[in-house]
Write a structure and sequence with these properties.
Length: about 280
């Protein structure tokens, strides 16, 4: 286990693993769930993935297949490489196509706070515990058939998809940052720099300022980790649509200045139950 990433060999893979691969000189990483048989289920923008094309985190994809089940014959590793439903960003790819030219890394779950804080980059581990592999694979395969909503680089990206498959946790607040450690890093770095700028008045050494900024950056990342956040709840994959509809309704009610009351917040494996009234 390194301070930056968790590189593994293919022989170390197990079904249900959350894997990722760095792109463009470690600028960002693409995440997915390994479901066994050299197959990976992952989340992209709602475009058709052509089998054999490298998968990117958020950049436009080279797509030419007009049908969700019409997979290019470029890849011959597995017959269903590139499968996705129409208007869905969840894709099944072979491991080779998922990795492209990148190396293979495994996301770490159940990391201690001290280990989490030593990581130089977000998107490599979480303090949250993973569910059993069979549950993880069930979620991934269910979402392959039913979708995972609209792609959003900060609130609903490939890492958010993999984190949900592994934990079943979703953010309650529709306006809040998603679960992605990468997104937290992108936002946390400038915030840490801004927050630490007043310390220049008290620190003569630039080294001390760098250490203080790095500390604030790590604490910002830790505060947004799904393992410590208090705005997440566990939702069954079969109830995702209802959960998202409830969040959309709440947003519309708030926009119309309606009174939204939380009656119960069940932290078991069911969505939040809400009662609302408009004055």
């Amino acid at each position: 286990m390194g301070l930056v990433t968790h590189k593994i060999e293919r022989s170390e893979l197990a079904a249900g693993d959350h894997i990722y691969s760095w792109r463009t000189l470690f600028a960002y990483s693409h995440h997915g769930i390994y479901v066994g048989g050299s197959k990976v289920v992952h989340f992209t923008r709602e475009q058709i993935i052509v089998s054999g094309d490298p998968i990117l985190f958020s950049a436009p994809l080279n797509c030419s297949s007009p049908s969700s089940t019409n997979v290019s014959s470029t890849c011959t590793n597995i017959p269903d490489c590139g499968f996705q439903q129409k208007e869905s960003g969840v894709v099944l790819s072979c491991l080779d196509c998922f990795l492209g030219d990148g190396l293979l890394y495994r996301f770490d779950y159940g990391a201690s706070p001290s280990v989490f804080l030593t990581k130089l980059r977000g998107g490599t581990c979480t303090t949250a515990q993973s569910d059993p592999p069979e549950v993880v694979i069930h979620r991934a395969m269910y979402l392959l058939q039913n979708g995972f909503g609209n792609y959003d680089v900060f609130k609903n990206n490939c890492e958010d998809f993999a984190l949900y498959c592994k934990t079943g946790l979703l953010v309650l607040d529709q306006g809040a940052l998603g679960r992605s450690g990468q997104a937290a890093s992108v936002i946390g770095a400038p915030l840490a720099a801004i927050a630490s700028s007043p310390l220049k008045l008290f620190m003569s050494s630039p080294v001390g300022l760098v250490v203080a900024t790095a500390g604030m950056y790590c604490l910002t990342r830790y505060a947004t980790d799904i393992g410590v956040r208090d705005d997440v709840t566990k939702v069954k994959v079969e109830e995702l649509t209802s959960f998202h509809n409830c969040k959309s309704l709440k947003k519309r009610l708030n926009e119309n200045h309606c009174d939204t009351r939380e009656v119960t917040l069940n932290q078991t494996d069911t969505p939040a139950k809400r009662q609302r009234r408009c004055d």
